[in-house]
Amino acid sequence: MRHPHPFILTDHAAVVMRERRISLEWVQRVLGAPRLRIPDAEDPDLFHALAPIPERDGRVLKVVYNGTKDPWRVVTAYFDRAWRGML
Question: What's the domain count of the chain?
Answer without folding.
Answer: 1
